[in-house]
Predict the structure.
Amino acid sequence: MLIGEVSLSAFDYVALNEKGREKKGTLEGDNARQVRQKLRDKGLVPISVEMTVDKAGGNKAAGFTFIRHGFNTAELSLITRQFATLSQAGLTIEESLGAVAKQTKRPKVRSILLAVRAKVVEGYTLAVAMSDFPGAFPQLYRATVAAGEQSGHLDLVLEELADYTESSHETGRKIKNALIYPAVLVIFCLLILVGLLRFVVPKIVEVFDGSGQTLPFLTRALIAASDFLGNYGGWLLLLILASILGFFQAMQREKFRYWIHSKVLKMPLFGTMSLGINAARVCSTLSILSASGVQLVDALKISGEVVSNLILRDSIIDASNRVREGSSLSHSLDQSGYFPPMMVQMIASGESGGELDKMLSRAARNQERELESLVSTLVSLFEPMMMIFMGGMVLTIVLAIMLPIISLNSLVG
């Protein structure tokens, strides 16, 4: 920072305009008094002016998919791309941050960017300034930026980081969109089934009350299910909600979460999906950090923190210890027994050919394609399976209603 340069800070304000309506935003200034004067010059009446602090604290180890109370993946991707473009155009870090802050429409995003800019103006590095907002800028992001600053090629590193965030956002979006339809279909089928048992079956069963005949077992079972929903449906719903809440509370304990994650990896389909997601995340993280000049051991540690499954996270930590002792990356990952053989083979090929970062990127894309293919296959199979299930349930209800009618007609005949 140059001698005599004014150090500006970001301030969040709440003010009233001429019509008495509340307005919120962020302004830069030497102190809160100067910001209040700027608001008065704009015709606003300041109510509160506070220095922007870390309000974006989230899960540091959540990766790009699980950022909380900061930027979502779409915002982080857009901001990184804009920042990379401005940096390559020759703008300084302060100018780039200011320009990106002006472009955004969300006050929260603008506030964080201006706060980061204020720290940079004070003389801090960009990575250190971003560390005040771990919920907005994950550790992988900050480590990559720090490597770019140390190497003197921040613009190139930001370009790679922008590609990575965009790719991560697109992959996550495809998977979420593919899973929305099955979820809606399940809910819709359950609602239809509950509606039939709760409202349709009781009215039809009233016909058999005065017949005096012994009803078939299927009909009696259907009536019992309908009566159960009528008498205890509300309690059943409360029990389901309490179970869901209890599960999420239990997931806060690492021991229980470790047990759940171990079971997930052993499940036929969910285990493959969890492994594919985390393997792609590990390869992508290692690729961008390796290309940015981060040491492999440090890159493995960061990769372990962006992995969501605790079992796989421990295996990454063990792999980093083996690499520190002199083992190759491919051999270290293969020792865990979790990662796909194709991925390990591609990494081994990259190590032997001296192109580890490129092969890691290729392995990440390969894992993402396999994951998308698996999700597409599951979705295509899920629809006919749900149709068969619903058809079977409706057929059961129809048979339960028709069997006593047929028996009654036989007796009358």
Notes: The mean pLDDT is 78. The beta strands are 9-16, 22-29, 45-51. The first helix runs from residue 32 to 41. DSSP finds 15 helices and three strands in the chain.
